[in-house]
Amino acid sequence: MPKVSLDMPTELMEDLRMHVGDDKKFVSFADAVRTACRKMLDHLDEVDRRHGRGELS
């Protein structure tokens, strides 16, 4: 699996970390970021479908 490095505002990281750990929604920070990316891509696919852009490769 490729590794990605990025700059992120501290406030965003702190907010995301509140949802990571035992008895929380995500098991790791990486899991939270991957899940957020998948949801964003699903949303963008839906927007494209609504605008008649069809399937993208």
Average pLDDT value? 91
Shape label: elongated
The number of helical segments is 2
Provide the β-strand percentage band: under 5%
N-to-C span = 20 Å
The count of domains is 1
Query: What is the strand tally?
Result: 0
Enumerate the spans where pLDDT stays under 50 for 5 or more consecutive residues: none
The helix/strand series, from N terminus to C terminus, equals: HH
Helix content, binned percent: 40-55%
Largest β-sheet summary:
none
| Radius of gyration of CA atoms, rounded to a whole number | 15 Å
What would you call the structural class?
A: mainly alpha
Question: How are the secondary structure elements laid out?
Answer:
Layout (H helix, E strand, L loop, with lengths): L9 H8 L11 H22 L7
General description of the model:
This protein is an all-alpha fold. It has one domain. 53% of the residues lie in helices and 0% in strands. It has helices at 10-17, 29-50. The longest helix is centred in the last third of the chain and has 22 residues, at 29-50. The chain starts with 9 loop residues before the first helix and ends in a 7-residue tail after the last helix. The relative contact order is 0.09.
